[in-house]
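Record 1 of the preview.
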Amino acid sequence: MNQVLPTPMTVDEFLRWSVRQERGRYELEGGRVVAMPSETIGHIKLKSRVYAAFDAAISRAGLGFYALSDGATVRVSRDRAYEPDALVAPLPSPPDDALEVTDPVIVVEVLSPTPASARRDLTTKVAGYALVASIQHYLVIDPGERLVFHYQRVGELLAAPQAPAEGVVHLDPPGLEVPVADLLGPEPEAAPPLSSG
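->
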């Protein structure tokens, strides 16, 4: 059974609380728990595709990095923690019983159809992920419009892209090249026209 939330919480308190929950996905913002919206099958498939694209890119490049799909926590500050939809970090990977990744280099969020969640990914999380010194790249994927936005570290900030990524996303460091098509997958097939007779 889900428990009553003690608020405000630190990230350490949040992690201890989160492992006692029977279901649900959560993040921590300003010491307060944020429940993540339910996910559609399409959203889940896209997150799996993103993980596979990064895993393949790491293998092609022969780099000492690993990719994870969603579930791992990234600590942003004392009272903020996010759960990106995918991430890339240097080896060695954390132990199997770890709850967080302390040194991600790339984090990815797939926009949810929920307006409040999408707004958080495009505003609050851009500022939050910029606080994590190891993060060099933040990708935001819009599944509805089939666009990939690549925020890159410039000093203390993650600078917004001038335009959506096209062709191949160059992620240096660590030196990965990921085709946009691999991240988005095949174009959905158009529905056949309705017959008039």
